Amino acid sequence: MAEKRKFTQQEQVRRQKLEELANLGIDPFGQKYDVETYTSDIRREYGSCTKEELEEKKVSVQIAGRIIRRRRKGKVCFMDLLDRDGSIQLYVRKDVVGEEIYEIVKRGDLGDIIGVKGELMVTDMGELTVRVDEYTHLSKALRPLPEKFHGLTDTEERFRRRYVDLIMNEEARKVAFTRPKIIRSIQNYLDSKHFVEVETPIMNNILGGAAAKPFVTHFNALDSDFYLRIATELNLKRLIVGGMDAVYEIGRLFRNEGMDRTHNPEFTTIEVYKAFSDLEGMMDLTEGIIANAAMTVNGTYDIEYKGHKISLAPGFKRISMTDAIKEKTGIDFNEHMSFEDAKKLAEEHEIEVEPHFAYGHIINAFFEKYVEETIVEPTFVYGHPIEISPLAKKNLEDPRFTQRFELFICGNEYANAFTELNDPIDQYERFANQLKERELGNDEANEMDMDYVEALEYGMPPTGGMGMGIDRLVMLLTGQETIREVILFPAMKQLDK
């Protein structure tokens, strides 16, 4: 049997008002209402009008939204109504709406949803206002809103009750509406370049496409365990084999790892693949996607992020991983040195050498410790070691390294790209090496995907591929420093009941 709910005094008062509305013949939770305009449209078209101009124009509007402020004195009530785009003041007079309707107005609370029709005016204080002729109650709020000027001050509570955060927090609403604009800008940019947007399975029976710990689920109909995808890469490259030539997917990935300011276990990426392209082509495409998104949502390439002024105009810096390490440490990993020599350097620099580490893993560890967080301007770091790049083509001049880049801005990674490995024999050997790493304790190593190897045996053209984190791009373009600000419902620790 469900435990009987306990209500605060305010909640009890609101339930009493609900009954009073019902007794007046008013449905407390309303019916359809024809919204004819929004506050942003009103302010854009009439925000600069004078009091006299609006009196002459006699502009009638019909809007709906939530009461977020109200003050009533006798036969007059002022309210602020919040809709999708913003707020506007309402002016309600008893002698205009009538005594019966004013009884409904009197029972209004902060948070109630109403619809109004009226004429625009400018008050003596110079505020654009709707002089209400018709007032319609639409939905009763049975819980009080947080105090207006502080909102939800507990950050954890903001993310748990995002619906309240969106009501009270203008910045949260701005981010929520900007995110889809960024995604749409990416789609429009790629569509204009004749890429095709596709969808691939979220559940896979083989772990591949990235180095990450998966979520595992059980597929009852097949009586088999499946992984929630950690990447879309391998299926998208199967489509390149099939002749689709230029494809992309924007979708959710799932990695069963920790949470911090830039990581959420469920997140969104875009992966792009272009036949007959390469690493250089992916650099150009990545610059174009980011620059176009910045211009679309902000109207400029210039942003300020984490206290740094940054330009997102095409022409990002490009540097090899080994050169970047050499700049910071003086160590040149381009030189041919033994694994033992590299291991000794790691120990001297207090870098832990794990059991599965090879030469390339040590190079990557040096980069992560000494370089990654120091990068501010958009920078393509290329030439990753082969050991950490099982799906990238080898560097023709030095097979220890690959044709791969990562894009870093303000110490964070934003994109990862390859000249894709299309040699099925080499790919089989890379998968085999990954299995050896798993045996040595690397639970993020890829499994053997023989179907993918067989796909490559039918022939995949030289191809460029790139993956980019959508959440981090939204953070960058909206000035947010934690991923939970740009995901509407981020993963949260369950509260004790």
CATH superfamily of the largest domain: Bira Bifunctional Protein, Domain 2
Q: Total number of helical segments?
A: 16
Report the top-level CATH class of the largest domain: Alpha Beta
Q: Return Rg in Å.
A: 29 Å
Distance between the termini: 16 Å
Molecular shape: elongated
Amount of helix: 25-40%
Q: What can you see in these coordinates?
A:
Its cofactor is Mg(2+). This protein is of the alpha+beta class. It folds into two domains: 9-145, OB fold (Dihydrolipoamide Acetyltransferase, E2P) (Beta Barrel), CATH 2.40.50.140; 168-316 and 377-485, Bira Bifunctional Protein, Domain 2 (BirA Bifunctional Protein, domain 2), CATH 3.30.930. It is built from 16 helices and 18 strands. The protein has helices at residues 9-23, 39-46, 51-57, 94-97, 99-106, 155-160, 162-168, 170-192, 233-241, 279-298, 321-329, 339-348, 359-370, 424-439, 450-457, 470-478; strands at residues 60-73, 76-82, 87-93, 113-122, 128-139, 196-197, 203-204, 216-219, 224-228, 246-254, 266-275, 302-305, 308-311, 317-320, 379-382, 404-409, 412-419, 463-469. The strands form four sheets. The protein has an eight-stranded mixed β-sheet with strand order 6-10-11-18-17-16-15-14, with helices on both faces. Helix 11 (321-329) crosses helix 13 and helix 12 (339-348) packs parallel to helix 13.
